[in-house]
From TrEMBL:
PANTHER family given in the database record: AMINOALKYLPHOSPHONATE N-ACETYLTRANSFERASE-RELATED-RELATED
Record lineage: Bacteria, Bacillati, Bacillota, Clostridia, Eubacteriales
Name of the protein described by the UniProt record: GNAT family N-acetyltransferase
Keywords (A to Z) from UniProt: Acyltransferase, Transferase
SUPFAM superfamilies: Acyl-CoA N-acyltransferases (Nat) (SSF55729)
Record domain N-acetyltransferase: where: 1-128
Amino acid sequence: MAWAMDLWSKEWGGTVMVSQGRSYRLTDLEQLIAWDGSERVGLAAYHVEEDRAEILSLNATTRLRGIGSALLQTLESSLRRRAVRKVWLITSNDNVDALRFYQRRGYRLTGIHTGAIDQARRIKPSIPLIGQYGIPIHDEWELEKSW
């Protein structure tokens, strides 16, 4: 658990994630860890409610090695076996790499929540104002995949 907490702290600025105004602690989520031999190389954190699952984070310690793709594929297979019919996630409007990643794997953009990140900063002030590629962070993008 300490490794996952350190990863979330590094990647997300703490061990609490805010999605659509709701706070999630890493310790309250199901987790799937990717391994390369004896080394942890990725983490998916998610929660399941009835026949829907929300991915709160999908992190690979090294980019462009297929870790994220393998994690996502393994997670989706596991969720299918559990009779989950829909997987969804939220990402911030600066995360254009995630938008590309998920769309290439069959996820569809289903919503834009204008100002949601601005409101989330009230709960988690550590959310930066400026994100990837110098893009100001204000909104949440919602993506989903059904089967």
